[in-house]
Batch of 4 targets.
Target 1
Amino acid sequence: MLEIRIHCKFLPQNFEHLENFISPIDYLPLNNNAKAIEIKNKHFRIIQEAKRLWLNYSLNIYEIKIQEYEQQYQNEFIKLGSLFSNNNDKTMLNNIKEHINNRIQRLKRDIYDKMTSFRRIILQNRQRSSSTKNVIGVSPEPYLDLISNPFDKRQWNYLSFGPSYIRVNQSAIRPKCQQETEIKNQHKDIYSKVENHLTGYPHLIPRNNAIFKQYSDHLLDYLNQSYFTPLAYNDQLISLEQAQILGSIRRIIQNRNLIIRVTDKGNNFYIGSAVEFEQKATKFFSDTNAFIELSYNPFNEILDKVIQLLNTLRGKDLIRKWQYEQMMPDRTKCELAHLYFNPKTHKIY
């Protein structure tokens, strides 16, 4: 319940007082977008960190109160036990203890049963409420290196899930031909790894063993069942909605020439202008002289040398056939080491 309240930005009212207490931004530089963005993000970060500290403080107080109530209960129960001396009294004490435990479990079940309706009410209130749209929450959000936010509420909430979020039932809404291709690729990948492991040391199972055919058939049946089992109607709606949101995000990024990156330490996204990002990279090169941009692509030259060396080692029988096959690079999957910036948004202060 706490998680859903944080996600929906429904925190106690004193958190809103905190946001109002911190001075709002009354002035932003008119002719310096970079400075205006920096000030806006600093203001957002200060309020967010203050709310997080306040939330942790409130939770610690709540946990201390629970521990005090638990200790008070134990003390009172010990006092009650000291009043009973004979066996009949002990039996009554055990019955009282059992009744209390049953009552506690019943209360827990009642609370758990009401959780679903509470979540639904919170989500409905969130959709109707206009006050939560501009409220700064405590959950991570993307770092927006832009003057204005080009994304709507649904798109921004989806981006706030971060790079570790996995969209649900992605393959279920794809065309059947794509699903069949994915099944074929997964079957080939999994089967080849299992086969290479079992035919190698220490198992040394022959490749023509019938167990591999059985495993291949079972694996294919399992993948077909996993991919083609019909989804529940509600799950299908969620999958379609998330796919539409993701498609709209991609269109905005492409049409506005934006760039999206994983931040260096925040486990969230950085979103900014691709042109300005390229200018920052160029300035970084000129200021540091740490990297040199190559005038030609050495990929084919390096790949040919690696293949030539492997052929030489195999020709002299210095490596075995399976080692040769494993080390042989795949031209379609290889790539050169390249410079890739992870924006350090934690260093904006």
Note: Strands lie at 143-145, 258-262, 269-273.
Target 2
Amino acid sequence: MSVQAISWALEQQIVTDASARHVLVALANHADNTGRDAYPSVNLLCRYTGLKRRTVLDKLKLLQDIGVVVRGNQRIAEAKIKRADRRPVVYDIRIDLGVDSFSVTDEKENGHRDAGSAPRRKSRDADAAPRFDDGVQMTAERGADSAPKPSLTKNTHTHMDWPCDSPREKYQLDYDWKPNLDMFYESCLRRNMTEIVSPSPEELANFVGHYSEMDRCLTDRGWNDLLARWCSENRKGEAKKKRAKSSSCGKSYSSSAEENKSGSNRAMSKFQASEDYKDELPRAELAEHLGRRRADLIAKRYGSDKVGAPAVEEMRRTLRT
């Protein structure tokens, strides 16, 4: 808890949204004297403010957009909270913003108050009495040195001015993230994926869009290794779909080939039957077996004195009956 951070959050006029100011005060309750290293959970901020979780997240984003709150050193939460899925985000409050305006206002108010008040007559005892604003120790013996006054200079340089580029630094993925191709290729080699040199634009867009919405922090090597696994699983799935599609096409082709074969066999059997009955019978022989009237009907149907396989087939059916 920092009185300086809470006082600044209450007096600042940069944030005018009421809910955002409430979230800022709750966040300052966990910061140090310089406004840094505040990492309360979202659920705790909801309990402080009485707001919904979605509203608290929106107000935190608003505070970051304004510039009052920035992301701090995430290693502090990492050192105290081992589980990454339960680790909150560390924020730093820019309490150096608006300091000049507050000091000028306070000086004007003090000037008006001193001008309106009458000067007080000091006696010898009053001059000898110690005052709190003189920096005199109340319990010190006579001749003791006065307590040092606190410094009025503000240290405006924080650790956010020099972003950490260490590959071991864990961070959350955003939409502007680009993979390190060397680390990505090493991850592919460890997975025996020598054919994958770089991720395709579609794979990279799907990967970034999926993990940027998650509160997950990894190192640079961890993100590149996860991208290699993403590409491997994606391409294995596509290859499996292609094999299933080709096998279904092969089955349909084989079934159609079998149907064509059976149809050709039936046609060949019919052709052989027609070849067996290729020899034509004269009309007189047909009339002798079937009768004159029926032979005339058959000859009229087929339009010739000689009839072929249909007439012979009909003749055989008649003889069987």
Note: The longest strand covers residues 69-71.
Target 3
Amino acid sequence: MASVCCFTSSLVPLHRPIHQFSSFLTIPNNKNTSATATASAIVPSTSMKNSKTVWIWTTTQHVMTSALERGWNTFLFSSPHQNLAHHWSSVAVIFPVFVGEGEILDGQGKRVASVIDVSTPEELERLRPEDEQSENIVVNLLDWQVIPAENIIAAFHNSQKRVFAISNSTSEAKIFLEALEHGLDGIVLKVEDVEHVLELKEYFDKRAEESNLLSLTKATMTRIQVAGMGDRVCVDLCSLMKPGEGLMVGSFARGLFLVHSECLESNYIASRPFRVNAGPVHAYVAVPGGRTCYLSELKSGKEVIVVDQQGRQRVAIVGRVKIETRPLILVEAKRDSDSQTVSILLQNAETVALICPPQGEALSKTAVPVTSLKVGDEILLRVQGGARHTGIEIQEFIQGRN
């Protein structure tokens, strides 16, 4: 992802119109501030979904160094901070640009972006792609945020122009990056606290993780046994799941089963494509960042990983968790290349199913109910390191018993 960083004074009020922030200041280019390098740093990649440009506004060096570690290396300076521009250019390879009157300029005075304040519906209505000369447009939403951002995305959807919004926190940045599913092309994160930069880095890491296929392997059922009563967890998501999708759950972190959602139709009960009847409270469930947590730890607002038969993954938000006492069934499986078995306990009900390996192009058999499982049936398994500390994989000796 191509990314840009910007910095400005902490003395400026957060919600003043941008054109009042500073006047344009030209400083001589040194070896680190060539106009060519500045321009190339601002050009984003062509991927709309995965490429988001980040500008960070700050005068805090700790924020600057953290941004550089992320690869965000274009900085914006207002006129009172020319010495800061020289200083940072002497200690790091950066690309300084400057805020002018309603525009952002590089060191040669070339316009990088136009800056527009939006505080009324009329000002928003006047913001149209055909009326803007700059390739990049920075909007300062002084009143509402979500609806204006959605309207801007719709208006610029088929345009070559790129639109950014100023945000004062990571939570605001997420609003702009996710509005209308596509999000704006970038954000200007105006902060003095490094935690916001770290949180934004983590957010982008999660987005990148979704584009990676998870390695799933075939496993063969070796034992199915009624186990008695236990407290099982239904996880209701804020997203709908399709056939072949579910959550990765297991009694041991070293082997997670792909438990199907309740999206399949039945004559006896309505489908609930937002729900996974995931297993007992002790079981592990996969969450973003390569981590696991206990099903008993899930609650509204937490994130989990939804995975399909092909290993495609996406992040989903938990809307509700239901824990109820139900009859359980124990299932064990192992890979042909491994003598070690892994297990999972699930509610003993026809609506609970494990996802099967895809059969070439034919994906009609997506899952098999636990009530129909037989020894020798094949299901999908995620094999990974077994030792965990607070859900994070670590290298240590651990022996788990089925």
Note: The chain has two domains: 18-210, 217-393.
Target 4
Amino acid sequence: MNSILVIAESDHDIRIASAIAFGILYFDYTLTYSAEVERFWKGRFSFASFIFYFNRYLALFGHIPVLYEFYGTHKQEVSLLCSRVQMYHQLLAGITQVIVAGLQLFRIHALYHGNRRITSALSCLCLVCCAISAWAVSQAWHQPSGDKTMAGIPGVGCDLTMTEAQGKYLSFVWASVLAWDTTVFALTVYRVLGSGSRWRGSLMGVLLRDGAFYFAVLLVCHMCNILTCLLAQAVTRGISVTITNVIASSLITRLMLNLRDPRLLRNQSSGATELSDLPWRANTGPHGSSAKSTGTSSHETSEGGSSGL
């Protein structure tokens, strides 16, 4: 009886954590909606704006079916619908992380002025991480689920338990994501601290605009995912996955909005090139080659003041 009570309490905790994640997602959307209209809707459509919309609205609408997994009312049994929703949730998490990784790659490409060696090395690392993640997820799906008839709150949501073997394989997924985020974070901080450029405003402002702060938050989230997958109880092994995906999508959205901040564009036109002035993608000349940093303003590379955005 005590074990059932512990499982029920843990089940309640993971649903509370998920409710917090959904609250962050939809509240952050209301906070940034006006900025989205001003900085994206009124500009010309581009590949960068497409990626922005895809990332933003996939998170916004893609998590609606996930609500059933946590809060849907049905008989407490291993249902086909629950299995499909949980598989969908894992796929959504994977797609979200791939989108975020791609946007991080674009940002590093811009920060390093399109350096081909860095871009190629990061692309290879991204492919390796994706391959490891795909293998680990496939292994987790093929693991026996164990007894799923006693866990959870009867009649509320799907069974959220995860076996030790499933947790071990999913920890490989988050370890590969952690390796990627650590690399991106290190490259971003190195560029910020070693650029030798003059900063206007606080260092924290530069870190926020260039993504280092956001990437550090993601790094901590992925470390939490690894620890919960390996050390938490069966029902709480995935407690931080939903909030990690929400935070990842929301932070990347805010980074892209910051790069179209009118205050940043005014700074660009003032004449001094700074690290935070660099566009989302590297500047390209008329023949498609990467433009070199010349100490002059880069705002002429696009009519909006930030090429690629």
Note: Residues 2-148+159-285 form one domain.
